[in-house]
Amino acid sequence: MIVLKSSDGETFEIEEAVALQSQTIAHMVEDDCVENGIPLANVTGEILAKIIEYCKKHVEGGGGSEEELKIWDKEFIENIDQSTLFNLILAANYLNIKTLLDLTCQRVADMIS
Amino acid sequence: MIIYWIAGNGTYQATTWEHCEKRDLISGLPDALIGHILSFLTTKEAASTSVLSTKWRHLFAFVSNLDLDDSIYVDPLKKVISTRIRGAPILLEEYAPNYISTSFTDFVDRVLALQGDSSIHKFSLKIEDGDNHVDPTRVFDWILNVLQRGGASDLNLYMALEMDPVIPSKIFSTETLVKLKLSGTIIHVEDVYLPKLKTLYLGSVNFLNHGLGLTKLLSGCHMLEDLVLDSLNWFLWKFVSFSNPKCVSFDTPNLVYLEFTDATANNYPKVNFDSLVEAKIDLKASFQGSFSQGFEDYGFMGNATAFVRRICNVKIFYLSSDTLEELTFCCESIPLFINLTHLSIESNPKVGWESLPGLLKNSPNLETLVLQGLVHKSTYRCGDVCLCKPCEDKEKEIPTSLSSSPVKVLKVLKFGEIFDDHDIDEQINQVKHFLQTMPNLEQLVLYYDPSFKENVTKVTTELQKFPRVASRKCEIQLISDDLYLSSRWGSSPSLEEPDWVFSGDFCQLYEE
């Protein structure tokens, strides 16, 4: 299990497989600096909760079929407000979660076009 | 509050939140992220954001995916070009066709100029000539520009020009390429160095030096996993070609998927399909003959034996009717297809099924057999696979390719498709023959051609009158666009009749 600490003091304990979807966290695990939990200075608890929700769903082999995942992603991304969306983009970029970054950026692109 | 992010080159960057708050949310994002977002738009839309402000203009350089398609410019019906600035549509004046075509090439020039030297990952270009002639030299200038900027991993060129242009051979030594798709060009292969290429798709291309060119290209991409060679132009014409490659080699140890349409070469000196899982092969015969002698009198060139011998490790195999015919001519004995679980055969009234008994016998692990059509040329060599002409030589060993076949699922496509001398009775009898002979069959599915509805009643009546079947657990399904009919044989041994389930419009056709 890995402990993540948001900028506003919330802690989240999650399975390693879920956390490893973030390349940033994966590197930290490799470098073995996760003893006392990982502080994420610029991700608030609210955003981190959303990210964990996404990562839990997308853990390999657990989320369901490709079609089901697509439908889930669509609902996930359509039910968040703009400022949450942008914060998610920044956080997904910082945490280096490619699939979430692409999902959020695609959403913004759809809004522009 | 300070925001950190990772820029495209992997370094940490920082900016202050207050600095962002003043602008709208999108503009507040770091440049690289805006560029990433822009790459999800079509290139035209992304380019139009460059008029928003000078900052946005320079942001366009971060868009590393370019997708350029001239269809909206060349289509004479779409004479009005519309674009959007700050959400409000602006309609530009109607242009004369010539102007439109020039404007596409100008557009691309401008897009590439805006991008400067930044590297581009994905470049897709689709050009159809139409009435206006696009100068291929300009097109190749664009391609060379993109390649020279470095970092290109995905290149997709579709060209339908009046004269096929010769593609710059520098493409084949772009070591960053992972995916390459080319269509409508002439290929002159010089040096090939594509160590990262995993996907190669060549459609309607012409190699300047025939088989040698293809061999050379393949030997330069050892990591290739997906290969599609479609309509290589050695003057293919219907079933035969007038010239063929002398020699083709497939040095592709990592290839997993192969789709190959070609004329049979004279020789296949080196074929490495160690990793091949799925293959779709359409090998056309090449013949030597003259029209004055008539079509029947020709000699075959090409020998696919070496190719077939090495493809025998596949699990999934699709054969066109031409390939089926080639198998008859080239292979004295069909190799053992030890891993084959799924086999799909295309039938053609001009091609016999002589290779089929051998194929079935040598596929000990076959589970699914798909016959695209049942109608084929009658010959004496169909063995026990079909009923067209029984083997008259009583001394010959009784054929057992069907009766010892492990096939569990048999699908017949285009069932009911009628050709000149053939009628539905032959096809019904053929299906009955399968049911009576194949001991491991669990499912027989007939995909019925909906244009022959008048025969449906006849088919189902005949199917219901079956005597014993070889496999008691076989389920029969008849599927068409608007009807579905299935039967299941009862588990009790005394039950000779199956239970039938009907659904769809068929219920009205069937009178009880």
TrEMBL record, chain A:
<dbReference type="InterPro" id="IPR016897">
    <property type="entry name" value="SKP1"/>
</dbReference>
<dbReference type="Pfam" id="PF03931">
    <property type="entry name" value="Skp1_POZ"/>
</dbReference>
<dbReference type="InterPro" id="IPR036296">
    <property type="entry name" value="SKP1-like_dim_sf"/>
</dbReference>
<dbReference type="GO" id="GO:0009867">
    <property type="term" value="P:jasmonic acid mediated signaling pathway"/>
</dbReference>
<feature type="domain" description="SKP1 component POZ">
    <location>
        <begin position="1"/>
        <end position="59"/>
    </location>
</feature>
<protein>
    <recommendedName>
        <fullName>SKP1 component POZ domain-containing protein</fullName>
    </recommendedName>
</protein>
<comment type="pathway">
    <text>Protein modification; protein ubiquitination.</text>
</comment>
<dbReference type="GO" id="GO:0016567">
    <property type="term" value="P:protein ubiquitination"/>
</dbReference>
<dbReference type="InterPro" id="IPR016073">
    <property type="entry name" value="Skp1_comp_POZ"/>
</dbReference>
<comment type="similarity">
    <text>Belongs to the SKP1 family.</text>
</comment>
<dbReference type="GO" id="GO:0006511">
    <property type="term" value="P:ubiquitin-dependent protein catabolic process"/>
</dbReference>
<dbReference type="InterPro" id="IPR001232">
    <property type="entry name" value="SKP1-like"/>
</dbReference>
<keyword id="KW-0833">Ubl conjugation pathway</keyword>
<dbReference type="InterPro" id="IPR011333">
    <property type="entry name" value="SKP1/BTB/POZ_sf"/>
</dbReference>
From TrEMBL, chain B:
<dbReference type="InterPro" id="IPR053781">
    <property type="entry name" value="F-box_AtFBL13-like"/>
</dbReference>
<dbReference type="InterPro" id="IPR032675">
    <property type="entry name" value="LRR_dom_sf"/>
</dbReference>
<dbReference type="Pfam" id="PF00646">
    <property type="entry name" value="F-box"/>
</dbReference>
<protein>
    <recommendedName>
        <fullName>FBD domain-containing protein</fullName>
    </recommendedName>
</protein>
<dbReference type="InterPro" id="IPR055294">
    <property type="entry name" value="FBL60-like"/>
</dbReference>
<dbReference type="InterPro" id="IPR001810">
    <property type="entry name" value="F-box_dom"/>
</dbReference>
<feature type="domain" description="FBD">
    <location>
        <begin position="400"/>
        <end position="479"/>
    </location>
</feature>
<dbReference type="InterPro" id="IPR036047">
    <property type="entry name" value="F-box-like_dom_sf"/>
</dbReference>
<dbReference type="InterPro" id="IPR006566">
    <property type="entry name" value="FBD"/>
</dbReference>
